[in-house]
Design goal:
Elements lengths: L1 H7 L3 H51 L4 H5 L1
Length: about 70
């Protein structure tokens, strides 16, 4: 509750401009590193899913027919 009292006495530009700018200045490298890691991980997961789907497609299309295919 003390933080709310401190912020209540400050002008709007300090709350909405100065404090976020300081946060970006101090923690910008950490934020960038985390976002880079998350985007990289998401890209690798999507690439893995696409490769597995392509492999399954190729095996079903060009692979040896199974027993059930020979019955027809």
């Amino acid at each position: 509750m003390a933080v709310q009292e401190i912020l209540a006495g400050l002008p709007w530009w300090v709350k909405w401009v100065a404090i976020p700018a300081l946060v970006l200045l101090v923690f910008g490298g950490v934020i960038t590193s985390v976002l880079t890691f998350v985007v990289s991980l998401l890209f690798k997961v999507l690439l893995f899913v696409a490769l597995v789907a392509g492999l399954i497609y190729a095996v079903r299309k060009f692979g040896a027919p199974s027993k059930s295919d020979r019955d027809w």
